[in-house]
Amino acid sequence: MEFDREAILRAGYDLSTPVIISNSEDYAGVESVSPTPDVRAGAAFLHVTRNNKGDNHD
């Protein structure tokens, strides 16, 4: 999918994207690893730690 980011901003639309973790009971912790609320595409912004012994994911 492609889009014109500048055209969307000029039209007055917000490009914020909510991130919802609906199964938060499966995690011992969810931490922000971004120093600012603005995150670039491909950058890590959360670190989640599972309750059980499994892989942790950034």
3D structure, described in words:
The chain is α+β, with helices and mostly antiparallel strands and about 60 residues long. The chain has a domain at about 20-58. The protein has one helix spanning about 5-10, and strands at about 25-30, 45-50. It has a two-stranded antiparallel sheet with strand order 1-2.
Quick tags:
alpha+beta; elongated; single chain; PTS system beta-glucoside-specific transporter subunits IIABC; 58 residues; 1 helix
Give a quick summary of the entry:
The chain is built from one helix and two strands.
Write the layout of secondary structure elements.
Layout: H1 5-10, E1 27-32, E2 46-50
Antiparallel strand pairs: 1-2
Cα separation of the termini: 24 Å
The helix tally amounts to 1
Q: So what's the overall shape?
A: elongated
Rg over C-alpha atoms, rounded to the nearest angstrom: 15 Å
Residue runs with pLDDT of under 50 for 5 or more positions: none
Structural class: alpha+beta
Q: What value does the average pLDDT take?
A: 86
Number of strands: 2
Order of helices and strands: HEE
Estimated share of beta-strand residues: 15-25%
Q: Main beta sheet, described?
A: 2 strands, antiparallel
As laid out across the biggest beta sheet, the strand order is 1-2
Helix content class:
10-25%
